[in-house]
Amino acid sequence: MSHESFRVLVADASTPVGRALVNYLADTEYVVRALVPDRGGESLARQAGATEVCVADLATGRGLDGAVRDVDAICCSVRDGGLAHVVGRLDTGVGVRNLVDAASDADRPYVVLHSKIGVGDSESGMVLPVRLVKYRVLGALDATERYLRDSGVPHTILRTGRTTNADGSGSVATSEGEDTIAGRIPRPDLAWVMVAALTTPEARNRTFEVAEVASPTHEGVEFEWRGPEAGLVARRSGYSIPS
User: What is the pTM for the complete model shown?
Assistant: First the structure.
């Protein structure tokens, strides 16, 4: 990379999780670049602490080449609302794939993907009407996870259930491919663990389920997430990010 600072792209910074990521990253040593879908989100992203803001369309791919240029990592959490659950294009699927393709064509930045596919028995526990509404999104998320894994781009995938506005604790219950944890997660904690994935080498190219430690069940695996609060800041050829 031609730059000295470690630059993290937040996509999409206009979502609740995206805003939590920008807020958290603004208090670290990372350079924060926020991806927003329109000019209306630019001022809000800067108010949240973004150093740089770019306007790009995940669904069409417009502007993504510029968004990923000179970035070392991408923290990605997108949202589809309204009729997008039933008809139309899903950023959850098409948009993230476009972002992964752009990352593959660039300098292969590390991708941390938030997948709201559910944890534990979250999916099977949904009532039938909710499962029908979310059917397309869950299918898109599953396909997107596989697309990222097959792309060869270095990554960490973090699966969650519902995200909330609750205060973060800086600690999460972690599982890997098991139904051992369930429940929601505060957005500040999700932002924390997404950034910690950049400086936790053991998380590379793995998929985890995460939830708040106060969840009804949290018999997760022993896993130590190590983030900026421990004095760790990723470098392109340093602690976690592969060169």
Answer: 0.86
